[in-house]
Amino acid sequence: MSSSVIFLTLVTTLSGIYGARIKELNVPNVVRNGTGPVTLSCVYEVKEDENGLVVKWFHDEDELIYQWIPPMPPQDIGVITGRAEYPEELLGRPRTHSIIRLKEVTIEMGGNYTCSVSTYQEEEMKTARMIVYAPETNVTIHTPELNATHTRLTCTVQGAWPRPSFDFRIDGASVEGRMVWNGIENYKKDGFLIRYDAVVPKPTEPALVECDFNIPMTDYRRRESVVYYPRSHRSTSTSIAASTTPSSSSSSLAPTSRPPSTLTSATIHSATSTAPASSTSVSSSPRTSEHAGPTTPSTNPSEPTARIAVSTPTDALKPST
Predict the structure, then answer these.
(1) Per the domain annotation, does 300 fall within a domain?
(2) Sheet with 178-181, side-by-side order of all strands
(3) What is the CATH number for 248?
């Protein structure tokens, strides 16, 4: 008798008998915050003689966000409540397709999406991940003198999500520092804020300070640069800053309310965007480029104030569907 049971099991497996089977789960890999519509689709097969069809979607494994029991219309729950639509043409294939059209994605919608198709006899699930990223709204570098021998380097990024990774360099040499951030719970209230600090010996010659950061699992990258001038070179930098004439379209000298003697550095901004850019913007502080938020001038006389800003967004990421 046991051999008959084993034989029946083998025949069932080899013949591909199933009540419900998911063929495809289509979820975009990377989506920019605030864009849409974005379509999630689950393509499946259900045997003709199977009853009790129920299609569910889960967010991050255990949060039920969608339930469809044909012929009743789908119900959205949780993070997508009121943010999804189900046009009639998308509801005409209940035994093969479940489609969610998100009107606009937000960072809370990022995560794993699981489609579950079940009947009275069987259930199958598949999971895919969607990353929702947000570019920064503002980036600043400050270089205040800490004491007679050392300088503090600070790169502050506001609004970027997920938490970016940093590479801080002086004249091409990497500098180790520490990261401080305010967490996702403060994102809606204040915007996500992360700061990278490093303490280094004071450069004795003018030095290029670069803050590179990227958003993990995306192609979004950004570089902010400052030319640091030690006190012994500041009279020279003042002469250069005062005599600089803005070019026609590639750079401009930002106005400052302080006398020329306080000008100590120039800042160069560049950006690599993960979304198509409509134009290239060149400006002084505050900047108006889509990928470069306003830069707040320092109020500390020992920090750089003269800024030459060049913002160059490019399309570096495959379009999201």
Answers:
(1) no
(2) 138-142, 150-158, 193-201, 178-181
(3) 2.60.40.10
Q: Provide the token pair at 69.
A: 């029991």
In what helix (H) or strand (E) does residue 305 lie, and over which residues does it extend? none
- pLDDT > 70: what percent of the chain? 64
Q: What angle do CA 219, 225, 229 make, to 5 degrees?
A: 165
Intra-chain end-to-end CA distance of the chain, in Å: 54
| pLDDT at site 169 | 92
State which of 132, 154, 181 marks the end of a domain. Answer: 132
Beta bridge partners, 228, equal: 207
Residue 2 placed within a domain:
no
Of the candidates 173, 130, 160, the one whose C-alpha atom is nearest the C-alpha of residue 220 is 160
User: What are the beta bridge partners of residue 223?
Assistant: 212, 270
pLDDT one-digit tens code per residue, 221-268: 999 999 998 877 665 443 333 333 333 332 222 333 333 322 233 444
Residue type, 82: G
Q: Is 214 in contact with 272 (CB distance < 8 Å)?
A: no
Residue at a domain's end among 111, 132, 153: 132
The CA-atom distances, in angstroms, between 149 and each of 177, 203, 246 are 17, 9, 35
Q: How confident is the model at residue 87 (pLDDT cuts 50, 70, 90)?
A: confident
pLDDT reported for residue 73: 92
143 burial type by CB count under 10 A (0-12 exposed, 13-18 middle, 19+ buried): buried
Structural domain including 36 reads 19-132
Same domain assignment for residues 145 and 119: no
